[in-house]
């Protein structure tokens, strides 16, 4: 196994990255700012890269530092959670990692049902665009978004999604939005991380080309949907993720739900060895049950 940096250096790095300050990190770790600085410097020397950019305005992560933080913070969180579980004699813990949008828009509203169904399981949930590293023990199950190219892992699709233009009823009224060609005359919202882009949607339902510029861009579906509810433009998002907004009448599909690109983009992913864990088996059974109920929900949207 490759050399692992001293834990003190890793903790100092994570604290400075999170607090954006050597002084605040030092206070949190009960050390001097000089000691924290030396620990970070030793880590940088061992890795051979500069983790932070220092200036008169403060400290910020370098590009390699940001990439390293995304991998290391999950491992440190797993250690902290495992330690707390052991300290409090929690013997049936489950660590689930998820893509941010499905975590906040679909999973979180259903966790109360999971708690009722499996009261003996202590659930730990984290969310990030980066995938969990099973080799580091960061998660038992990862709910991933994207194209399923994860060899040596069990990959189970959750549901088919409909990616459809969505806007607030007031925006639709204001712009008289009835025809697809009108999309080129109104602000469009770009979701950078979506596997279905505006060019894909225009290619499926029109001979027109998607615009090259967009009113606003976001890296999370939650923000894209919120922007649409606030009348900033038309978002191209999953009707499943937008289910709450549609049910509340905050968003409508101006061209109907049949003008949707259908994809399977969310997957439950885990190493084969984890299938033997009772908590994992219980969670997967519950997860697929909820996914089935989502597929069976009436495909209606409120009209304003």
Explain what you see.
With 304 residues, this protein is α/β, with parallel strands linked by helices. It is 41% helix and 18% strand. It contains eleven helices and twelve strands. The strands form three sheets. The chain has a five-stranded mixed beta sheet, with helices on both faces. A five-stranded mixed beta sheet has the order 9-8-10-7-11, with helices on both faces. Helix 1 packs across helix 3. The longest helix is centred in the N-terminal third of the chain and has 25 residues. The termini are far apart. The C terminus is likely disordered.
Tell me the distance between the termini. Answer: 61 Å
Count the DSSP helices.
Answer: 11
Biggest sheet features: 5 strands, mixed
User: Which residues sit in consecutive blocks of at least 5 with pLDDT less than 50?
Assistant: 298-304
Arithmetic mean pLDDT: 88
Roughly what percent helix?
Answer: 40-55%
The helix/strand order is: HHHEEHEHHEEEEHEHEHEHEEH
Number of strands: 12
> How is the largest sheet built, in terms of strand order?
4-3-5-12-6
Overall geometry = globular
**Which structural class is indicated by helix and strand composition?**
alpha/beta
What's the alpha carbon Rg, rounded to whole Å?
Answer: 22 Å
Strand residue content: 15-25%
């Amino acid at each position: 196994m490759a050399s692992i940096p001293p834990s003190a250096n890793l903790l100092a790095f994570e604290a400075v990255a999170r607090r954006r300050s050597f002084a605040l990190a030092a206070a949190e770790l009960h050390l001097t700012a000089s000691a924290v600085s030396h620990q970070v410097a030793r880590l940088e020397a061992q890795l051979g890269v500069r983790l932070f950019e220092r200036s008169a305005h403060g400290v910020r992560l370098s590009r390699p530092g940001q990439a390293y933080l995304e991998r290391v913070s999950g491992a440190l969180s797993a250690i902290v959670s495992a330690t707390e579980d052991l300290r409090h004699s929690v013997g049936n813990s489950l660590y689930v990692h998820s893509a941010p949008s499905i975590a906040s828009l679909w999973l979180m509203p259903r966790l109360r049902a999971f708690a009722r169904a499996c009261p003996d399981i202590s659930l730990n949930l984290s969310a990030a665009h980066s995938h969990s590293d099973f080799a580091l023990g960061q998660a038992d199950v990862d709910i991933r978004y994207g194209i399923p190219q994860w060899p040596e892992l069990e990959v189970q699709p959750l549901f088919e999604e409909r990616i459809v233009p969505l806007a607030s009823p007031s925006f639709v009224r204001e712009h008289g939005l009835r025809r697809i060609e009108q999309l080129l005359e109104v602000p469009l919202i770009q979701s950078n991380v979506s596997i279905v882009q505006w060019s894909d949607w225009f290619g499926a339902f029109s001979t027109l080309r998607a615009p090259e510029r967009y009113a606003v861009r976001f890296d999370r579906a939650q923000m894209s949907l919120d922007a649409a509810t606030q009348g900033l433009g038309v978002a191209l998002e999953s009707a499943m993720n937008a289910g709450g907004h549609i049910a509340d009448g905050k968003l409508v599909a101006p061209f109907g739900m049949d003008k949707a690109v259908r994809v399977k983009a969310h997957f439950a992913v885990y190493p084969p060895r984890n299938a033997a864990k009772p908590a994992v088996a219980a969670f997967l059974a519950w997860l697929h049950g909820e996914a089935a109920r989502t597929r069976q929900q009436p495909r209606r949207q409120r009209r304003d």
